[in-house]
Amino acid sequence: MSIQFPPALQAGQRVALVSPARKISAAELAPAIEILTAWGLEVVLGDSIAGDHHQFAGDDTLRRRDFQQQLDDPSIRAILCARGGYGTARIVDGLDFTRFNAHPKWVAGFSDITVLNTHLLALGHASIHGVMPVLFHQTGGEMALESLRRALFGEAALPVIVPTHPLNRPGTATGELVGGNLSLLHTVTATASQASFAGRILFLEDLDEYLYHLDRMMLHLHRSGQLAGLAGLVVGHFSAMRDNTIPFGSAALEIIDSYARLYNFPVGYGFPIGHEAENVALVVGQLAHLTVDEAGARLF
Which residue spans within the chain are E strands per DSSP? Predict the structure, then answer.
């Protein structure tokens, strides 16, 4: 399947901010709106911004209707998911991508938005895994923000270079990028939102999970055959991992290594991807090259 890439943004175009998961206020987005306006874009706030239904940005119907409106509106040239949390998987099956298929546009986000990244890839569309508006102003996030801007406006991505890591597995790989939050990749398995990993470079990150949960999810990817055909593996941030009173016995990256070493593909650790300020934007579906050697790892 060939991957469709939306047209690059241009100054003067309209972009929508929506929240398909956790609730958020318009006030929290004021810094992001200022930044997007400085980029020359006109910002439209969807109905889910300031929506309030328990922890969600409105009930499922409101969030689905809001996202559908932005998918269908030809004047909206990109949809930026304001934040993550939980809830995107609850609305994705009710979305109609008919008009989007004819006139694709950028959809960007990460964490819970991994559901949309993989769903769109399964439909043959590229999207952006990158920093979300609620985090645009965070200290130390300048690289993350600039990489998102470059992806949206069609500028060449800068290579991502990280130092050597003791768990790295050397080699080279070329393939389309796929991946995101491990918990959500686990959630979409065997659904319409699952995208194939075969022949692709998988990137992974996660936040606030118990170590045994991490092992269970990696075991599932292994047992379901999803790791078997990988071209390569890129490991990002695994932040604020938790353990039980009786320790699991392995750290997060050691758990990933225990499964990655069952295969022959190259693996690079320490990439700035995930729930840290340095969260470089990756275009899901983009052909990429991974090199892991004694100097470290490079993704370009």
Answer: 14-18, 42-45, 76-81, 106-109, 127-129, 160-162, 171-181, 201-207, 232-239, 267-269, 282-284, 287-293, 296-299
d(CA 206, CA 39): 30
* Paired residues of 119 in beta bridges: none
d(CA 252, CA 167): 12
Q: Evaluate whether residue 224 is within a structural domain.
A: yes
Residues 178 and 141 in one domain: no
One-letter amino acid of 68: Q
Residues 122 and 221 in one domain: no
* Per-residue pLDDT, 1: 77
pTM for the full predicted model: 0.98
Tokens of 11: 């100054």
Together in a domain, 211 and 134: no
Catalytic residues: 111, 205, 275
